[in-house]
Amino acid sequence: MEKLIQEAKIAYMRTYSPYSKFGVGAALLLKDGTIIHGTNIEISSFGLTNCAERSALFSAYSQGYRKEDIEKIAIIGNTEKPISPCGACRQVMSELMDLDCEVILANLSGDKMTLKVRDLLPYHFSSEDMKYGK
Ligand code: THU
User: Fold this and answer.
1) Please, which pLDDT band fits residue 1 given cuts at 50, 70 and 90?
2) Is the CB of 25 under 6 A from ligand 1?
3) Which of these is catalytic: 7, 42, 53, 102?
4) Measuring from atom 9 of ligand 1, which residue has the nearest CA?
5) Domain 2-130 is of which CATH architecture?
């Protein structure tokens, strides 16, 4: 767990956040041992900003990995308590990761907590909910 948090910290150091100056880092551990980093990337048109967790997951999927390949994710930021992923990232994690996958939340002070994707977004919207669509 410590190793993955350290990897998330490497990604945190790579933040591109000139507007908020708030860095976030994420590290995905894959079942084949590969680690994929993600950092938050801010754009002057703020709505285009990409969070660290999404950067890591989109990168993994772009490399051909899928949810069954993912072991866990660690996310870190300079927060008082272990960082709390935003709602958009919770929705993305609920689709791109197994609901039982471990999510490690950390901060720079060494606080951490582990929970599952399903705990982060109970009653999440999913493709199942679209089956009655026209
Ligand atoms: N941010 C993340 O990268 N992940 C989160 O879950 C929360 C927010 C980023 C987005 C933005 O660059 C900065 O933190 C401030 O919102």
Assistant:
1) confident
2) no
3) 53
4) 51
5) 3-Layer(aba) Sandwich (3.40)
Whole-model pTM?
Answer: 0.96
Amino acid at 129: D
**Domain residue spans in the chain?**
2-130
Mutate which of 57, 86, 92 for ligand 1? The one with the most ligand atoms within 8 Å of its CB, which is 86
String of b and e for 9-27 (b: at least 16 CB within 10 Å)?
A: bebbeebeeeeeeebbbbb
What is d(CA 40, CA 15) in angstroms, rounded to the nearest whole number? Answer: 6
Sorted by sequence, the CB contacts under 8 Å of residue 38 that are 6+ apart come out as 11, 25, 26, 27, 28, 52, 53, 54, 55, 56, 57, 58, 59
Q: Is 95 a catalytic residue?
A: no
* pLDDT tens-digit readout, 34-70: 999 999 999 999 999 999 999 999 999 999 999 999 9
